[in-house]
Amino acid sequence: MINVMKAKLTNKSFWKILLVFGITGFILTEILFLTPSTIEQKELSDTTSYWNKESFYVSAPQNSLATQMIPNQIPDDSIWGFNYLSSQSGRKKWKITADQAYMYKNKDLFYAQNVDSFLYDSNQSATKILSKEAIYFKKEDKIQFFGNVKTLFNDGFILSSETLIYFPQKKKFLIPQQHHVQGKDSTSKDKMYKFSSFGLLYDLEIEKITLPQKVTFDVIQTNPDGPVITTISSDQSIINRNNQTALFKMTPSKKNKKKYVKITQPNLFIRSIKVNLKYDDPITPVQFLVARQDVFIEEKVDNALSRYATCGKAEFNIEKNMITLKKFPQVYQDKDTLTGEVIKINRNTDIVEVKYSNAYNAGKK
Fold first, then answer.
1. pLDDT at 65 over 80
2. In 3D, which of 200, 213, 124 has the Cα closest to residue 158?
3. Are the C-beta atoms of residues 157 and 183 closer than 8 Å to each other?
4. Which of 37, 66, 161, 296 is deepest in the core (most CB within 10 A)?
5. Can you give the pLDDT at residue 83?
6. Does residue 285 carry a pLDDT above 80?
7. For residue 322, what are the contacts with CB-CB under 8 A and spacing of at least 6?
8. Is residue 293 over pLDDT 70?
9. Quick one: pLDDT at residue 44?
10. Contact status, residue 91 vs residue 120, Cβ threshold 8 Å
11. Whole-prediction pTM value?
């Protein structure tokens, strides 16, 4: 009887000890394998990162737009409800939130899906980026966004593209030249400009945008009679958002050494080698436009040729609808030819003023 009792006690003690070891093992497994560690290294201790929720069964991401950039291996962790903040000296640098993220610790990167990102400037104001996917490469110090990328600046400016690369330390955006990009800015209810290009480089520190290829720039003024659109087409453009100016130029090729920037308005066509534009002020969206080198201007009335001109420099005051021609200007209308030092054309009144005029009729002086 006593031996039976001892056997029962021994069995109970055995199961209790086994249960304790099982619970302890489960807790250690949770700590060691299911709790993600930060990708940021210890030497960047003033840079913080964190994420929420538990990891579950880890599998490789499926149907990714960034397949070629994701390591060909099973990720170390898969995190739902991902939230990652990078800061330095107590100031936020950037933050990424996503439905799900995959951690590749040996590659020092993570890949995220259905992403909202926030980039903070010196005033801690955020530029928001929406994208289907994003990858953070720690070694290269860059974040690349993929899929219907929308970059929303806090002043209302918007960039749209299929991919975008951000360099946090350099404060620069890059879109490779094989990718199309569009930009849009509504300066008021009746004023807007937009552009498109293949490729982009945006230096956020000095607010300088470089458009390297196939540029179209539209300035849109809404009037009671409808919108008036000025369109500029060029190979390249440099836009300074601080003073709202833009330079447009061409890149000569071996086959075509002389190429032209083209400007169109209703009933007006201009071409030249270079164009400078002041595209916004409190009064009008196009304050001033200057066409330089080998300028050709063509005006039409009811789609019929009315007048054309050539010169070395043309200044367009859009507010007054006035064109000033300089550097050997010539104006041709019907059989008449006007030349002089400076010629001014008022497109509202159709009056032409000539300084130091020389007038020709039917080829005679």
1. no
2. 200
3. yes
4. 161
5. 94
6. no
7. 316, 344, 345, 346, 347
8. yes
9. 33
10. yes
11. 0.78
